[in-house]
């Protein structure tokens, strides 16, 4: 028998160390070639480390949360053959699994795409006990639906990936009747003395580091503008009715992307990256829009490249493709990096005002709040209009307050008169 030593691979981009996120094997396990042994995290992506050999795990080189140098011993596997130790300097190709890109506090509103769970999984008994502070996995739409129904999500068994609560789980919970729903009420008023220690590792550590770095390095300021989106919503509904069956349905996001592209022609300082160490601002002609997306592993920012050259439907298709890739763990490192400005939306949970954190090294992020119908006075008449706030943040080291306000007002004008989005 011999020992095959697998070292931490060089993942590229000059990375000298990575964080060991999770082990998928333990000492004593038998593994086969191409079986995933561990996940490690770089600045931009989660990476699977597969086994290049068949054998038995005899030693692990680190613990989850540990930062390991490239080239250090990751795992030792006992294999058949010569007794000499073989070092795997270049293990089997790693597989990228995207993780939250630098940033964000926003969610693209859209139901996650996942393989349908067997009906038996939903009917196992939808009520499940979770700790009071445990946050169940669920999309923003499901959370809003549960809120509207008066359901505590922590009591609902999730049938989706990783226990994610789906709309059908809410239906199953309600179908059980009030007898099951009322069972935990007494426990809800009982005193609790338990505590839970949660290590800040992996994706959560990376998000914390990015947030801390962004707030410490950039001079954040936010600007909120109210927009009447009645006209653009009417245009969207008309286009969906006329072309939705052949070209696909449009959400508001492609219109926002288009408005940003047009407004950036007059405010190129917003489409920029700031290297504060070199003291250099790089303004880009290309508009690479990062679109914040919620996934099971956290918030990601896939990038719609060259938005300036895309039609509404082209943007819509690309946004949907990237969002699905991110949620399904299939977005590449390139698809999660290289944005020049970010669009962040909380969809139906958008609230009234938010203060999004910049996606460094970018200098601007446009935040979208929810659409509400409100009475407005227009030409002396009270009318019902669809209103929406844009809550956007900027780096005051690069962007002046007046320019930020004028930029957002330009977007406002384009959306309130949507024909101007397409006038060259």
| Strand-residue proportion | 25-35%
Number of strands: 20
Outline type: globular
Average pLDDT taken over every residue: 83
Distance between the termini: 72 Å
Low-confidence residue ranges: 86-93, 97-125
Order of helices and strands: EEEEEEEEEEHHHHHHEHHEEEEEEHEEEH
Can you offer a commentary on this structure?
The structure is a single chain. With 424 residues, the chain is of the alpha+beta class. The protein contains ten helices and 20 strands. The chain has helices at 119-122, 140-149, 167-175, 178-181, 185-188, 202-217, 230-247, 253-264, 312-327, 401-416; strands at residues 2-7, 17-23, 30-31, 36-41, 45-50, 55-60, 67-69, 73-79, 86-88, 95-98, 220-228, 272-275, 280-283, 289-291, 293-295, 298-300, 303-304, 341-345, 364-378, 381-395. The strands form five sheets. The protein has a six-stranded mixed sheet with strand order 11-20-19-18-14-17. The chain has a five-stranded mixed sheet with strand order 3-6-8-1-9, with no helix packed on it. A hairpin with a 4-residue loop joins strand 12 and strand 13 (280-283). The longest helix is centred in the middle third of the chain and has 18 residues, at 230-247. The radius of gyration is 25 Å and the shape is globular.
């Amino acid at each position: 028998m011999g020992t095959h030593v697998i070292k931490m691979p060089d993942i590229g981009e000059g990375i000298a160390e990575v964080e060991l996120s999770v082990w998928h094997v333990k000492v004593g396990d038998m593994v086969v070639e191409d079986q995933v042994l561990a996940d490690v995290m770089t600045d931009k992506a989660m990476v699977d480390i597969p086994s290049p050999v068949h054998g038995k795990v005899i030693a692990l080189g680190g613990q989850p949360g540990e930062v390991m140098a490239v080239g250090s011993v990751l795992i030792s596997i006992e294999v058949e053959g010569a007794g000499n130790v073989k070092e795997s300097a270049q293990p089997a190709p790693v597989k990228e699994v995207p993780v939250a890109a630098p940033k964000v506090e926003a969610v693209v509103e859209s139901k996650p795409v996942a393989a349908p769970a067997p009906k038996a999984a939903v009917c196992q008994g939808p009520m499940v006990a979770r700790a009071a502070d445990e946050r169940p996995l669920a999309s923003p739409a499901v959370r809003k639906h549960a809120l509207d129904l008066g359901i505590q999500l922590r009591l609902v068994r999730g049938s989706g990936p990783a226990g994610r609560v789906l709309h059908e789980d809410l239906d199953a919970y309600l179908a059980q009747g009030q007898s099951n729903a009322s069972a935990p009420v007494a426990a809800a008023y009982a005193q609790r003395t338990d505590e839970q220690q949660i290590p800040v590792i992996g994706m959560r550590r990376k998000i914390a580091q990015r947030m801390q770095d962004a707030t410490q390095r950039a001079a954040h300021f936010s600007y909120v503008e109210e927009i009447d989106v009645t006209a653009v919503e009417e245009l969207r509904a008309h286009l969906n009715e006329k072309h939705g069956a052949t070209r696909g349905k449009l959400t508001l996001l492609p219109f926002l992307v288009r408005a940003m592209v047009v407004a950036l022609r007059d405010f190129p300082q917003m489409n920029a990256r700031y290297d504060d160490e070199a003291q250099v601002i790089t303004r880009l002609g290309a508009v690479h829009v990062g679109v914040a997306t919620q996934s099971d592993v956290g918030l990601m920012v896939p990038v719609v490249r060259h938005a300036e050259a895309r039609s509404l439907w082209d943007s819509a298709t690309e946004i949907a493709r990237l969002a699905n890739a991110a949620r399904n763990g299939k977005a590449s490192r390139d698809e999660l990096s290289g944005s020049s400005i970010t669009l962040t939306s909380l969809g139906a949970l958008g609230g009234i005002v938010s203060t999004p954190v910049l996606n460094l090294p970018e200098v601007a992020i446009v935040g979208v709040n929810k659409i509400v119908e409100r009475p407005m006075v227009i030409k002396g008449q009270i009318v019902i209009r669809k209103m929406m706030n844009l809550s956007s943040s900027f780096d005051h080291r690069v962007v002046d307050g007046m320019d930020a306000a004028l930029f957002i007002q330009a977007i406002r004008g384009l959306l309130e008169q949507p024909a101007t989005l397409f006038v060259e």
